[in-house]
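W.,

You were right to be curious about this one. When I first looked at the sequence I had no strong expectations either way, so I just let the prediction run and decided to look at it fresh. Below is the sequence, 171 residues in total, followed by the output.
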Amino acid sequence: MNSKEIDKKRLNTLVNEVIRDYGASDKKHVYRQIGASLISMGLEADSDVKSKCLLKPQESFDFKNEPSSSRKLFIDTISREIPAENAEKIGRNFWKIFKEKAKSYICEDGAIIKLIKDGKVNAALEKVITSVLIPMGISGLWIPALATITVGILILILKAGIESLCNLNNM
């Protein structure tokens, strides 16, 4: 099996797990998981509307101008316990920014819209992952923290209703 087939198989497994488990997932818990993953990697959502990237280093880390103090702050940040409220707030903020940035990728992609309208949710979610997350800067889906963020995004898309993200009910 080549690496492309392995990646596709992993992607199918990920999507199937999300579809199987999303009904039992609590949104607050998903926000907390996303937020905790972001904090643990020293990342935050990139709220710059002009940027196509979704993630950026936390603003408190200035590795270019203050490498020593930023490295110490980073280590302190990723090694401390993360309060659930903080993680949830960061996760909610990430979801808000993700929705704004992803709409153009998802809602303007005719292939995704057709899959959604045809009721092929699994295939639509696979396409969402590859056509949205990778160009927006989330690659390496098999890194545990990024996989947690990806799973969270897919669960939230399903909970919100993938159709409502693009207002397909009004089409």
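Here's what jumped out at me. Residues 84-107 form the longest helix (24 residues). And, maybe more interesting for your project: The mean pLDDT is 78.

Coffee later to discuss?

I.
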